Automatic annotation (TrEMBL):
The keyword Coiled coil does not apply. One of its GO terms (molecular function) is ATP hydrolysis activity. It comes from the Bacteria. It is an enzyme of class 7 (translocase). Keywords: ATP-binding, Nucleotide-binding, Transport. It comes from Variimorphobacter saccharofermentans. Its EC number is 7.6.2.9. Residues 4-226 form the ABC transporter domain. This is ABC-type quaternary amine transporter. The chain holds residues 24 to 249 of 276 of the full protein. The keyword Cell cycle does not apply.
Amino acid sequence: NSKIYVKDLNKVYHSVKGDTVAMKDVNINILENEFVSIVGPSGCGKSTLLRMVAGLDVATSGQIVIKDRNIIGPGADRGMVFQAYTLFPWMTVADNIKFGLKLRKIPSKEQEEITDKYLKVIKLEKFRNSYPKELSGGMKQRVAIARALANSPEVLLMDEPFSALDPQTRADMQLLIRQIWQIEKPTIMFVTHDIEEAIFLSSKIYVLTSTPGTVKKEVPVILPYN
Ligand code: ADP
Ligand code: ADP
């Protein structure tokens, strides 16, 4: 029951200044219901790895399989939450959450039910008709999480989702995503440079170490207490 399977993945960026090896022979296996963090120092290739799994960037060589399918480009099977708020500013909170459901022509009654469910999960029922500019940073990230989960993705991909938040909000968000994971058990791939955050949140950690720009090895750590 592998959900994300990454085999011998390599990424080289070519530019006029020369080649940058962003990742070398990375192997990762994320099982159903696992909360996996990818940690490592800045520049070790965490974002690159996540972008390739998201289908937003193309590997130089190697294989990425999401739930038995080789991926080619982005897809609704992967929900995404990034560091910078990516809500549509001209849409209300509810319409942001509904966005993917509308695209997929889900019946409107069902759209409402799903939206209500996730507004409750993120505790923003009262902000249903608010616009992103009326929300704090933490609230916006909660909406981004709801929007990603509303599509029932195979996996939830998160790239430093709480890094831009103040410490208190960040702690609140960590508790919330942990609670969501414990209740709904989504499969999560979570990129962070913060090892404490990874230990607090995850059921498994991959550590990417690096000489500049080059991933040397991955160490899966099974945390017994999650
Ligand atoms: P991390 O997320 O761990 O900080 P990144 O994945 O952002 O690391 O970057 C890994 C390496 O690849 C770095 O050396 C970075 O400068 C380089 N890199 C990332 N994106 C690009 C790009 N679009 N073009 C060239 N080099 C890149
Ligand atoms: P993060 O630290 O969150 O991984 P970065 O600041 O490394 O983010 O990268 C932000 C964006 O800049 C990414 O889209 C990445 O592809 C691009 N980028 C990073 N390093 C380079 C580089 N050396 N040359 C060109 N683009 C880069």
